[in-house]
Amino acid sequence: MEQKELQKIVNPIYTTAKGTIITLAAGGDQNAIALCPYLELEELSGRAPAPESFQKAYAVGQEARFQVYNNAARKRAESVIVDLPSGYSPRGFVMADAGKQYYGLDLPAVIDLMAPAARETMTDAQQQHARYIAADATDYASVRRALDGVNGEICVVTEGLLGYLSESELENMCLTVNRLLTEFGGCWITADTGMLGIYSAVYTVLIDPDPTPLLARMRSKGSAMSDVSFYQNSLFTQGNDSAVAFLNRQGFAVKAEPVGDYVYDLRTVDADTEKRVARACGDMAIWTLTVARPAAEIPEAEVPFAVEAVETDGTLTLRVRGRLDTLTAPELLKQYLDRADKAERIDIDTDGVTYVSSAGERALRMIRQHRV
C-alpha cells in the first residue's frame, strides 16, 4: 500500500477538510473553485446529499466562519499567519493579497495535495507569500521546523480542529502554541468553541428557529468522517467559563470578542441577511490568546521515532519508540504490512513510545484487529 494511502487511513479527519472546500466553492468562492480540480474530491462522491435546507445553511455558515477568521487575521498587526491546520482552505490567497506571509500547516495527506494545487492556482505574487508544509499540531518540533526562517511575531489561526482533539492532543497543542508564541511573540486566534453556533445562527435566520436537526446531523457526520469522538475535550464539555479556565491553566490569557463583529463581506447573502446573521452570532466568541505564563522548557532532544521489526519462529515483533502520531503512524503500518502475511502472530512493543495521538491509536487498533 502506498504511503499516501497509509496517511489517509490513520488520519481520516482530512475528509472533513475536503467537505469544507466543496462547500466554499458551491458558495461561489473563486479561489476555492480554482483549487477544487486539483484536490481529488471524487473520493467524496457517492455520499447521500444533505437536504436542500441544510445545504443552504452549510454554504452560508461555511462562508461566515471562513470570513470571521480572515477578517480577524487581517486585523492583526502580526505579518506572519500560521494556519494550523490549513486544510484545503483558500485562506492563503486571502492572506497573500493582504500582504501577510502565510504558513499553511497540516497533515501530510492534505499538504501533498494542497501545496501543488496552490502552485497551479496562485499568482506569482501570491506564491511569494504562501508556504504549505506538513506538520503535526500536537508536536512542537514538527511545527517549529516548518517555521524555520520566520522573523517577527506570528498569528496562529485554528479553524475547525479543536473539537476533533482528544484531551491529551489538546494539551499538547496548547503546549506547542505556547512555546511558539513565547519564542516569536504574537497571538493565537480561534472561534472553534462557537463553530457549530455559527451554523446554528445561519440556520435560524434562513431556515427555521429550531436548529436542532442541523446540529445533530453535523455532529454525527463530523464524528463519522473523522473517526473520533467529536467535542469531547475540556473546551467543549463543561461550558465557556470552564473552557477559559482550562486555557488559563495552559498559560494563556484569553480575550473574547463577539463573533458577530467579524461577520461581514459575505457573498452568499444580501446585506440585510448578513446583518441578521451577525446579530444571531452575538453570544458566540472569537478568542485571541496570548502567553501569560510560558510553558516548561523544551526538552533538549526528542526520542527519534523508529520501528524495529523482528521475526522469530512465526512471530512478528514491532518495537516502537518515540512519538506515534500523525506523521509517524503510517510508517508503523507500512512495517506491519510489509511482513504481516508471513507471520502467525503479531506482537507490538510500545515500551519506548513517548506519546500516542489518535492517529497512533488508530494504527495500533487496526494492526491488533488485522484490518488494514
In short:
With 372 residues, the protein is an alpha/beta fold. It contains 15 helices and ten strands. The strands form two sheets. It has a seven-stranded mixed sheet with strand order 3-2-1-4-5-7-6, sandwiched between helices.
Query: Averaged pLDDT, please?
Result: 90
Coarse shape: globular
User: What percent strand?
Assistant: 15-25%
SSE pattern = HHHHEHEHHEHEHEHHHEHEEEHEH
Structural class designation: alpha/beta
Biggest sheet strand order reads: 3-2-1-4-5-7-6
* Relative helix content: 40-55%
What separation lies between the terminal Cα atoms?
A: 10 Å
In the predicted model, the low-confidence regions spanning at least 5 consecutive residues are none
- The level 1 CATH classification of the largest domain is Alpha Beta
Task: Output the CATH homologous superfamily of the largest domain.
Answer: Vaccinia Virus protein VP39
